[in-house]
Amino acid sequence: MTVISSTKSTEALSFTLVAEFDADVERVWQIWEDPRQLERWWGPPTWPATFVKHEFTPGGEASYYMTGPEGEKAGGWWRITAIEAPRRLEFDDGFADDDGAPVEAMGTTHATVTLEDLGGRTRMTVLSTFESEEQMGKMIDMGMEDGMKEAAGQIDALLAEHSRA
Q1: Count of beta carbons in the 10 Å neighbourhood of residue 123
Q2: N or C: which end of the chain has fewer CB within 10 A?
Q3: What is the pLDDT of residues 91-119, one digit of tens each?
Q4: Which residues pair with 8 in a beta bridge?
């Protein structure tokens, strides 16, 4: 299994997912940088993502939706706050309505992604921080932890597929 740990901290208002891959840092960076690769794993298997906008630059925006098993759609957005290729990515993340506008009532999560070289392998740490304990509780209750584990569990196959190309 790709995911080696997931940790919730109500004191720090955070959720941390750590995964390791048999690919170098530059290759793992591509699964964030390339929207076609990103949408292959960003949602859990039953809720695949489609990115309709992906401006991968500091200050850039991304918009996407995930399609559920019954065809229902859930929108999301990112505002990229920092990029230090190929080691660090930071972005604000939130829910979007049918027109792609942020759903303020759901709040904003801040994600920090770090990629660490393990001698040809890569450790990816995704730290999500929340605005409040209430928001964190809602996100966890909605299945964020299992969803992120399932999503990250799809990365190995994507990396293996592209390494053979």
Answers
A1: 16
A2: C
A3: 999 999 988 889 998 999 999 999 999 99
A4: 15
